[in-house]
Design goal:
The structure holds 2 protein chains of 2 kinds. Chain A is mainly alpha-helical. Helix content of chain A is 65%, strand content 4%. Chain A has a two-stranded antiparallel ribbon with strand order 1-2. The N and C termini of chain A lie far apart (46 Å). By secondary structure, chain B is mainly alpha-helical. Chain B folds into 2 domains: 80 residues, Four Helix Bundle (Hemerythrin (Met), subunit A), CATH 1.20.120.1200; 49 residues. Classes of the chains: A mainly alpha, B mainly alpha. At the A-B interface, helix 6, helix 7 and helix 8 of A face helix 2, helix 3 and helix 5 of B.
């Protein structure tokens, strides 16, 4: 029996990884499409697979949407020559892409994807449930920086090294902000660190029926949400915080010396990180799988409710991934000193003030 | 299953720790330290002290060693020179090490060590809530004192780095 349980858990994990990897893979295509819309171009619309592409209407449509771009890119990364420059530290050079790719995959184990109701008792659709959920997420994502630092250092040349150094200082600076901005949320939920409980606390309507806002933390704690979102952009190294990569001044930053599939790992890892970050933001601030104005108990019992709740969370996550790309083409990128100033002199004091303010409010208004 | 995992994680904690002490390449040493910390965290998790294990990774592997690596790379500390001609410096620590490792062996041989207690070891404060409560009631004084210690260290760091600035020529130092 023990082995069968283990096998089932493994199977579940594989399914989750496949789904998340597909989402991250298609965010790459999505990024190119969104970029092209913002810039008034068409984007990838010609890659096609011989038989599938010639199906009368659907094939043309899929080709035009760039659906076949992902397998083409993946195959390209796989079959390209793997360059191994002479001047690199071979062990760490090979290790770095793996290390940077692992943390998002590990975080997947504790993310709740939806709820499953049986006989009135709801439980999380998740690989595992711990009562230190969010701390686990933060601990594992803090390990992600090693991939970038090691890549920068092992490449043994100037630009990657600068990228690695920038990555580490940026990540350390913004990790503080992440922790401090999340604290008020978990104080509000009464001290539990469980992500499922956070979603449970967000069903229903805020301030009674008359005011009419969903009881999401983005409405009850807008500043925390903003601070967390900004820090999340910095943590995932997305524009406007692309210091480690800095295509304009550091060539490619930490991955300058990488090619083929190793670069692909960094690339997909970044998008996986984005997808997981978006899912986290939706879980913590956008009510997870709660539908606005409906209580969480509105989901039907059994498999149907579970699938629906997962789909709702997926929709919110995909919107946030789109939001990342939207921001990318809306805001100009920061200079390095501006990133540091923003992190230490603006976000950090704001986060501390926010924390203290909410602590005082919660102490004097215990009914909230 | 449980035992196999225990020995796996114990090896994951101890082997890198030994290799870390012996390693001459400082970057290798830092990476080995992370592996050792992760092993310790896994051992904590096996004792169901999930909070402790997560904090172990978050604080030590996630923050402290990043700073180590950062400094190693910035200073380009690279390799430590060989110990040739510095035998005298090694003797005292070596003596300590031998003494410390012999003591428990002696204790066991003399029969006073007692049987190793293998039982259901479960951390008293496994959940975050219990941990916080204990920290702010029973262990408040040590907690506050530790905070004070950290504050002192922080002031010291600021002082040391300030002094370096004033050591520069005046035109640069004023910047």
């Amino acid at each position: 029996m023990d082995w069968i349980d283990l096998l089932i858990t493994l199977l579940k994990a594989v399914v989750v990884v496949v789904i998340v990897m597909t989402i991250s893979g298609y965010s790459v295509v999505g990024e190119r499409k969104v970029s092209s819309w913002v810039q008034g171009r068409v984007g990838p619309n010609r890659t096609t697979i011989p038989l599938l592409g010639s199906i009368p209407v659907i094939g043309k449509l899929l080709t035009r949407w760039g659906i076949f771009q992902l397998p083409a890119d993946g195959a390209k990364f796989l079959f390209k020559e793997e360059p191994l420059p002479d001047h690199v530290n071979k062990f760490y050079y090979n290790l770095a892409p793996i290390i940077s790719f692992l943390p998002p995959m590990i975080i997947l184990t504790v993310l709740p994807f939806g709820q499953y109701v049986k006989d009135g008792v709801s439980s999380a659709v998740a690989l595992t449930q711990t009562d230190v959920g969010i701390l686990f997420v933060m601990a594992v994502s803090s390990l992600g920086v090693y991939g970038l630092i090691l890549a920068g250092w092992a490449a043994n040349s100037k630009f990657p090294f600068l990228g690695g150094i920038r990555a580490s200082s940026q990540m350390i600076s913004y990790e503080l902000c992440i922790g401090l901005s999340l604290l008020p949320v978990f104080m509000w939920t009464g001290g539990t660190l469980d992500l499922f409980a956070v979603v449970q606390a967000q069903g229903g309507v805020l301030f009674g029926e008359s005011f009419g806002l969903p009881k999401w933390f983005i409405f009850s704690q807008p500043l925390s949400a903003l601070l967390y979102l900004v820090a999340l952009f910095a943590e995932t190294n997305r524009l406007p915080f692309d210091m480690p990569e800095s295509e304009t001044d550091l060539v490619g930053g930490f991955h300058t010396e990488y090619g083929a599939f190793k670069f692909g790992l960094f690339f997909v890892g970044e998008y996986a990180h984005m997808a997981i970050g978006s899912a986290l933001f939706s879980i913590i601030f956008l009510g997870g799988w709660s539908i606005p104005f409906l209580p969480l108990s509105a989901y039907p019992e059994g498999i149907l409710g579970a699938v629906l709740s997962v789909l709702v969370l997926a929709a919110k996550t995909i919107f946030l991934i789109f939001f990342y790309m939207w921001i990318r083409w809306t805001l100009p990128r920061f200079r390095y000193d501006q990133v540091m100033n923003l992190g230490w002199k603006i976000l950090l004091p704001l986060a501390v003030a926010n924390l203290v303010a909410y602590a005082i409010v919660m102490a004097f208004m215990p009914g909230l | 299953m449980h035992e196999v995992l225990f020995y796996l994680f114990a090896a994951m904690t101890l082997l890198p720790a030994v290799m870390l002490v012996c390693s001459r390449n400082t970057v290798n040493a830092a990476m080995l330290m992370i592996v050792s910390f992760v092993g310790t965290a896994a051992l904590f998790a096996m004792l169901q002290a999930y909070l402790l294990s997560v904090l172990q990774i978050m604080v030590y592997a996630g923050a402290v060693v990043v700073l180590f690596l950062f400094i190693i790379m910035l200073l380009d500390a690279g390799r430590i020179k060989s110990f040739k001609g510095r035998i005298k410096q090694i003797i005292v620590p070596l003596a300590f090490f031998v003494a410390l490792s012999i003591l428990p062996v002696l204790a066991i041989l003399s029969g006073r060590g007692g049987e190793a207690q293998v039982g259901e070891a479960v951390a008293p404060a496994s959940s975050a809530e219990q941990f916080g409560l204990l920290l702010f009631t029973k262990y408040q004084l040590p907690f506050e004192l530790t905070g004070f210690l950290l504050l002192a260290a922080m002031v010291g760091v600021i002082f040391i780095s300030r002094r370096n600035v004033s050591a520069l020529p005046k035109s640069e130092g004023k910047e």
